[in-house]
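Human:
Focus on the backbone:
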Amino acid sequence: MNEMTPVKSRTSAVPSLLADGGPMGWIRSEIDRLFEDFGRPATSIFNFGPRSTDLVPALELTAGEKDYRLSAELPGLTADDVQLEVVDGVLTLSGEKKEQSERKDGDYHRSERRYGSFTRRIVLPADVDADAIAAKFENGVLHITMAKDEKAAARSHKIAIEHK
């Protein structure tokens, strides 16, 4: 049975994650970002408005029996436009979109340039094997597979608290 289950939504996942420090700690950074963006105009990978440096690709994380799968929607980008890096349990997804078009029609000359960049940092669940992360870019979607480290549970233990 290798069925993938979606990770809980922000509203239902926050209390349990903060209470028990579950393996999905990365969502904490998403909550922080949510509060930082509160009240700001909505942005997307297509929006090159006044905040063009704040492009935010949509992410979806699912958890399976043996791995996690993260998908990032990056329409209009190619694999060469995107960088992935893992440092100290944090996955950094960054990229830059550059568009340039030029059209000449008689006396009419139209030239447009659009630029935008983004960076997303995701704290990885504690049981991710950082050496077993693979990525594939297909049809504007980046698919990242992160294998679970079977030894992670063995590294976890409770600590006794002394009573005085």
